[in-house]
Write a structure and sequence with these properties.
This protein has about 160 residues and is mostly helical. It contains 5 helices and no strands.
Length: about 160
């Protein structure tokens, strides 16, 4: 998981990341409207999939987040004339909810990094402690063996 997140974040830092302003370059309005319609259909289908979820809370949150993504795409891909119509109240709420969930996710990511760092420290501490006890045990066994040999030698000498 750490490797995947590192690669993903590393890709975002590269200068040639996704540039949405170039997405519809060299396309006429008809092609753009067809593509937008296709994207809307995909979001509608995803929203319909959420209807199959049994948990009402999960279904509602999923639908709101999908609507938020759809609203973000609408803002991103609409021209100025289309945006003058404004957004519906539910779209604005969904967009704010989505931004809240995304910011919450970043907080969880930071917390998971700290947990991983703490776990690595604990693993390192346990590894060093076990190694220390292993070395002590080996020296104790060697010392016992030497003492046993010394006792055996003294017994032979006394006989």
């Amino acid at each position: 998981m750490t490797e995947l997140l590192t690669k993903t974040i590393g890709e975002c830092a590269i200068s040639n990341t996704f540039n949405e302003s170039r997405l519809f370059q060299n396309k006429n309005d008809f092609e753009q409207s067809l593509l937008l319609e296709e994207i809307q259909d995909k979001f509608y289908n995803i929203s319909r999939i959420f209807d199959c979820i049994g948990c009402d809370k999960c279904r509602f949150n999923g639908k709101v987040q999908i609507k938020g993504l759809g609203t973000a795409m609408k803002i991103l891909f609409s021209n100025a004339h289309q945006l003058r119509k404004g957004l519906e109240k539910s779209e604005i709420i969904a967009l704010v909810h989505l931004m809240h969930k995304l910011s919450e996710s970043l907080g969880y990511y930071k917390a998971f990094l700290q947990i991983e760092k703490d776990q690595n420290f604990k693993k390192s501490l346990i590894k060093h402690t076990i190694s220390y006890f292993g070395v002590v045990l080996i020296f104790a066994v060697v010392k016992l063996h030497e003492m046993q040999q010394y006792k055996s030698q003294k017994l032979r000498e006394s006989e």
